[in-house]
Design goal:
This protein has 163 residues and is of the alpha+beta class. It has four helices and seven strands.
């Protein structure tokens, strides 16, 4: 296990610092429940800076792919992630005043000990589909691995009812 990168977010932004690296999917505990496999690596970079109004920001880039669990067939579903986001660093009062329609980016709470991996995990979780599923007709059934067709889910019960 490696040391998790922590930053003083305001200092990081004011000084235009940059951090980049890779994170193993197995190091993202809140994401594991959604995954079909713990194998995989995501690439990330975080760049500090100031916006046009002189406010501290973090530009976060996150790329890679992993396998989610399809909620229709419970099989593996390949999911590519390519997030580019700009996060405004605020204190609690600033977050309360931030107007969602006014800005092109989200506000987060500035932290002297911000865990970068936790920040990345938050952004991944916020971007996941609510119920990831294969395209219609692409799911594999548990018996035999044949594609599902548009059968009524209670067709088997109908046969039993006739007997």
């Amino acid at each position: 296990m490696y040391a998790r990168p922590c930053i003083d977010s305001l200092d990081f932004a004011r000084n235009g610092k940059r951090i980049s690296g890779q994170v193993l999917l197995s190091e993202l505990p809140r994401l594991l429940d959604f995954l079909d496999s713990r194998q995989g690596v995501l690439n990330y970079s975080v760049q500090g800076g100031m916006d046009h109004l002189g406010r501290p920001i973090l530009d976060v880039s996150l790329h890679g792919s992993f396998r989610l669990r399809c909620q229709r067939c419970l099989g593996a579903l390949d999911y590519a992630i390519g997030h580019e986001m700009r996060l405004l660093l605020c204190d609690q009062a600033g977050l309360d005043e931030l107007d969602d329609d006014e800005e092109d980016f989200d506000g987060i709470l500035a932290d002297e000990h911000m865990d970068v991996i936790e920040l990345l995990e938050d952004e991944i979780l916020l971007g996941l589909p609510i119920s990831p599923m294969h395209e219609p007709g692409a799911c594999m059934t548990a018996e035999g691995g044949h594609n599902q067709d548009n059968r009524h889910p209670f067709a088997v019960l109908e046969k039993l009812k006739r007997n």
